[in-house]
Design brief:
CATH superfamily of the largest domain: Gcn5-related N-acetyltransferase (GNAT)
Strand content: 25-35%
Order of helices and strands: HHEEEEHEHEEHHEEEHEHEE
Distance between the termini: 19 Å
CATH class of the largest domain: Alpha Beta
Number of strands: 13
Oligomer: single chain
Radius of gyration: 19 Å
Structural class: alpha+beta
Largest sheet: 13 strands, mixed
Number of helices: 8
Number of domains: 2
CATH architecture of the largest domain: 3-Layer(aba) Sandwich
Helix content: 25-40%
Bound molecules: coenzyme A
CATH topology of the largest domain: Aminopeptidase
Length: 301
């Protein structure tokens, strides 16, 4: 695990020309947390018994994505990245993934070329955005998955599944909700309206998670696709900010595909600013849930 984690940091630092080692990813953890969430979807490459790279697939029901794919820099351009794509593509087949994708560097011909070989096509940009946490109080009726009794958890997971299914058939992020709960990485905020789940947000908080120190990272959030979706989306973001503030976190991070234009615009209006952007590639070359009226946060990193 430490070797795979080290290569993950070294590969990104090298590609992006970060001179201070490990500065970019600081105490953000992806390798360990994704392996723990589903060891059967974690793959490594070995050369002469040495670990030289890793890749991870994620199952969101009818949707699947992969990453981080990282190879030790002295082994780049030797076909190892391609080899680490094979088991991931086989898993998508096994999972009967309808819409597969990834997030990558839009400016890199190598990255786009590599993934295109596997049938992925470049689509819209995804903006990774952040804002300073303000200590506003949310007015919405919210609960947290961590406070849900064991008996009620299955009901809540079903409600989450029904909500995402209404956005894109078969989309199911139960895996993320369970991973956050089991690994104690943060919490899932549940927003209720008339006793019905109106929206939810899966958040990672602090060091050793996908957020990192001082940060609340909204890994996935969605508002029920109804007429008041914009209002629900706003209340959901309020609730995430309130949770971040209660945990003394100073930064809120969330990614949104710019094809979800209304959500992107709403986040800009709430003072979220893009600090990193990449392109989403999809197989087949279809929008999936990246439509302008979908109020959903995720970034497939
Ligand atoms: C990106 C990364 C995983 C690729 O791994 P790798 O082992 O170097 O890649 P491979 O050698 O298997 O394959 C690269 C392919 O891209 C192709 N390629 C390279 N430059 C290209 C270009 N300009 N246009 C089109 N294709 C190109 C190569 O030809 C090769 O395919 P081929 O062997 O069929 O000719 C690795 O460079 C890495 O770890 N980078 C830093 C971390 C990172 O960016 N990860 C991915 C995040 S999405």
């Amino acid at each position: 695990m430490p070797v795979a984690d080290h290569i993950f940091r070294l590969a990104f630092d090298t590609f992006l020309g970060v001179t201070e080692p490990a500065a970019l990813l600081s105490d953000i953890s992806l390798v360990k947390t994704r392996w723990a969430a589903n060891p059967n979807a974690a793959f490594v490459a070995e050369a002469n018994t040495e670990l030289v790279g890793s890749n991870f697939a994620t199952n969101w029901g009818s949707v699947g994505f992969f990453g981080p794919l990282t190879i030790r820099p002295d082994f780049w351009d030797k076909g190892i990245g391609k080899r680490l794509m094979d088991p991931v593509m086989a898993l998508f087949e096994e999972w009967k993934t309808k819409h597969a994708g990834l997030f990558t560097f839009a400016h890199s011909p190598k990255h786009i070329g590599l993934y295109h070989k596997f049938g992925f096509c470049p689509r819209f940009l995804t903006a990774i955005m952040s804002k300073t946490v303000e200590s506003a109080k949310s007015t919405a009726h919210c609960t947290k998955f961590s406070e849900t009794s064991l008996g009620e958890q299955e009901e809540v997971l079903t409600a989450c599944r029904e909500l995402t299914d209404a956005i894109y058939e078969g989309l199911n992020v139960e895996h993320e909700i369970r991973a956050v709960a089991h690994q104690k990485m943060g919490d899932t905020v549940l927003l209720w309206s008339n006793n019905k789940l109106a929206g939810f947000a899966v958040c990672h908080t602090g060091a050793g998670t996908e957020a990192g120190s001082g940060t609340c990272y909204i890994k996935f959030a969605a508002a029920r696709p109804e007429q008041n979706a914009e209002q629900i989306f706003n209340l959901l973001l309020d609730a995430c900010e309130e949770m971040a503030s209660a945990k003394n976190l100073s930064r809120l991070v969330a990614g949104v595909n710019t094809a979800r234009y209304k959500a992107y615009r709403q986040m800009l209006a709430r003072n979220f600013r893009t600090y990193l952007q990449g392109v989403v590639m999809a197989k087949p070359n279809e929008a999936g849930y990246n439509r302008s009226d979908v109020y959903l946060i995720d970034d497939w990193r």
